[in-house]
Amino acid sequence: MNDEKYFLLSDQSVPTNRGYYSSDMSLTSPEVKFKRVQKFERKLLVWIAISTNGISSSFFAKQRQAFNEKTYLEECIIKRLVPFIDTYHDKDKTLVWPGLASSHYSNIVTSYLSQNGIQFVDRYMNPQNCPQSRPIETLWSILTNMVYDQGWEAKNIDHLKQRIQEKIKEIDLNVVQSMFSDIRKQLRKIADHGPYHACS
């Protein structure tokens, strides 16, 4: 299972990063009152693959636009996913479950996977908006909480990358394995009753 996520220098969804309160505005410093906000915040794309055997090496990219199929194929599939499969799995018994991004199902990516004997979930069989069926979504949530713990904010993109790398190393393999423990049941529910049955 592989997917990517964008991380910002600070996460406003973490309660400690949401705001500042004061009973006396005259005591509030100008840096707080007049905090500048960029229209398009700098962000860092992180790609990983996970399985019952662990987490692959990560791909990081400073992003201002969408992730394209050429980068996905070269940096994620060829350089990271294939070696991860070769090291930890039998290629004939492996099923790659990508996200639904258009780059994941582009012709060059699906052709490469097919030519190299790597099976993957077809797009029409891949449920959308159903994170309960995809353990990697749980992993992203855990990693986000670890990165932005106690209101942590990055000074720059390199600082953010370093923090994410540290936190990925801290993720317990037992947690990753437990996320896959009931995946067959969830997928059976989806197959038998549709994707929204597993989401309830």
Explain what the structure shows.
The chain has a single domain, classed as Nucleotidyltransferase, domain 5. The protein has eight helices and six strands, in the order βαβββαβαβααααα. Strands 1, 2, 3 and 4 form a four-stranded antiparallel β-sheet that branches. Strand 5, helix 3 and strand 6 form a beta-alpha-beta unit. This is Transposase.
Quick check: average pLDDT?
85
Q: Any idea what the CATH superfamily is called?
A: Ribonuclease H-like superfamily/Ribonuclease H
**Record field, number of beta strands:** 6
Supply the CATH class: Alpha Beta
Q: Any idea how many domains?
A: 1
Distance between the termini: 22 Å
Indicate the radius of gyration in whole angstroms. Answer: 19 Å
Helix content: 40-55%
Q: Give me the number of helical elements.
A: 8
Structural class: alpha+beta
Biggest sheet descriptor:
4 strands, antiparallel
Helix and strand succession?
EHEEEHEHEHHHHH
Anisotropy-based shape: globular
Uncertain spans: none
CATH topology (fold) name: Nucleotidyltransferase, domain 5
CATH architecture: 2-Layer Sandwich
How much of the sequence is in beta strands? 5-15%
Give me the secondary-structure topology.
Layout: E1 2-8, H1 30-33, E2 43-51, E3 54-55, E4 59-63, H2 69-88, E5 95-96, H3 107-115, E6 119-120, H4 135-147, H5 157-170, H6 173-179, H7 183-193, H8 195-198
Parallel strand pairs: 5-6
Antiparallel strand pairs: 1-2, 2-3, 2-4
Protein name: Transposase
InterPro entries: RNaseH_sf (IPR036397)
GO molecular function: nucleic acid binding
